[in-house]
């Protein structure tokens, strides 16, 4: 089959990656420590990166359209981040105390997300940030139920895949699920709860891992109202979306969450998570209040704090805007290609996508907001088409996620978009009969 041919060529071209895969598989299940990096027949090993190029150990170069699932905002080996971290590290790291950087980064992020955030705390990943936010909501409200959404992803141990082929590592919280972007169905789920049991609603402003599905503003505003009517906290997971507007996606959705969670880019490209919100909630975490303990050896680690400060300097209002403009342009150009070549109703209109209109009309569609997007396949052969697309793009020298996810970075230029759009055009014309 077509896919087997792609995989055969891939195996031939990537002998060194295959050798490392086999060696690592002795000590790591599936030679893997991040499920998302699993790829068939085996993942390629990336040896180095510079600006927006990555090189595999097999000596091939790719334009990086994955950007470390959005955490690689600055492009590879960013000089300014390197300098900031290097000068911090010269003074030692793991110093076992408060450091000079944490307060500065806290101030920068609170000022940036000031729409809803008065205070902030750091941790080491987006997963942790969401676990801490949920724990805080349970402690603050004294209630247990957490409303989440199908297709939602809040980290390795808080995920709700729509079609789950396997177990998740979700803890035994009292999660209840509702469909995303569906006000009536969500109301029905909440009405069926025992009285006074809802501790929190946690939601992404755009479902990232769920396929870059933009949340409808009216849905988001409704959730905020619902949370407040039920004495629950409204948690907005901005781990993926905080890059989509200077004050986070919340600033474009007309909402003011009680707690916002962050991850990825604000740590300068190093391990990072944070959660912040209103005074009344966050003050529970003041150790002298003796209400709620939150600890973590690396919460204030020098590298993420110093790298994050420089990252926030780099990703200023202008950089946010131009990166998102670039993403809007790319999505529009892809939508135009699909429309011209396939005659489908492809569009980058966020509401149409959110309503599912696009998915039902096409076997390939593009969705997303600003610099984050997904090329997704639908129909009976969707998994095979998605895998073919992944290998096709690799053969064109373009690195995207296996699930078709694309994140731009600050080194992405219009010339890279041109190459990407040409590859899509070629893909669509080569496989027109399958689409
Ligand atoms: N929340 C969202 C919306 C994410 O996209 C992710 C990661 O992709 C996470 C949480 C988890 O972040 P981390 O991988 O840093 O644990």
């Amino acid at each position: 089959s077509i896919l087997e041919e792609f995989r055969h060529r891939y195996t031939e071209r990537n002998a060194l990656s295959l050798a490392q895969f086999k060696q690592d598989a002795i000590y790591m299940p599936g030679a893997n420590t991040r499920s998302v990096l699993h790829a068939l027949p085996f993942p390629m090993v990336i040896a180095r990166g510079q600006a927006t190029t990555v090189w595999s150990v097999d000596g091939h170069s790719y334009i990086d359209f994955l950007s470390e699932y959005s955490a690689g905002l600055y492009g590879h080996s960013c000089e300014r981040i390197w300098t900031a971290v290097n000068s911090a590290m010269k003074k030692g790291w793991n110093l076992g105390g408060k450091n000079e950087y944490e307060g500065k980064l806290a101030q920068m992020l609170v000022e940036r997300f000031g729409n809803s955030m008065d205070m902030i705390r750091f941790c080491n990943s987006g997963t942790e940030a969401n676990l801490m936010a949920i724990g805080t909501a349970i402690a603050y409200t004294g209630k247990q139920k957490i409303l989440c959404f199908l297709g939602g992803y809040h980290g390795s141990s808080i995920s709700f895949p729509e079609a789950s082929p396997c177990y998740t590592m979700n803890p035994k919280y009292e999660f209840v699920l509702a469909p995303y972007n569906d006000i009536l169905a969500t109301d029905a789920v909440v009405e069926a709860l025992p009285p006074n049991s809802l501790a929190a609603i946690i939601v992404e402003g755009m479902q990232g891992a769920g396929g870059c599905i933009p949340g409808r503003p009216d849905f988001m505003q409704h959730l905020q109202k619902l949370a407040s009517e039920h004495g629950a906290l409204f948690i907005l997971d901005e781990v993926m979306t905080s890059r989509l507007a200077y004050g986070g996606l919340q600033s474009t959705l007309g909402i003011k969450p009680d707690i916002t969670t962050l991850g990825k880019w604000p740590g300068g490209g190093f391990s990072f998570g944070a959660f912040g919100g209103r005074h009344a909630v966050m003050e529970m975490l003041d150790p002298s209040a003796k209400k709620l303990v939150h600890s973590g050896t690396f919460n204030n680690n020098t590298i993420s704090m110093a790298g994050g400060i420089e990252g926030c300097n780099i990703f200023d209002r202008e950089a946010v805007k131009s990166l998102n403009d670039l993403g809007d342009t790319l999505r529009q150009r892809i939508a135009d290609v699909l429309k011209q070549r396939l005659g489908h109703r492809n569009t980058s209109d966020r509401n149409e996508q959110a309503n599912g209109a696009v998915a039902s009309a096409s076997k390939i569609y593009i969705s997303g907001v600003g610099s984050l997007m997904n090329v997704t396949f639908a129909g009976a052969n969707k998994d095979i088409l998605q895998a073919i697309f992944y290998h096709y793009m690799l053969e064109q020298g373009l690195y995207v996620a296996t699930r078709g996810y694309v994140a731009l970075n600050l080194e992405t230029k219009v010339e890279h978009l041109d190459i990407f759009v040409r590859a899509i055009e070629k893909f669509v014309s080569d496989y027109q009969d399958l689409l």
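The radius of gyration is 22 Å. The longest helix spans residues 317-342.
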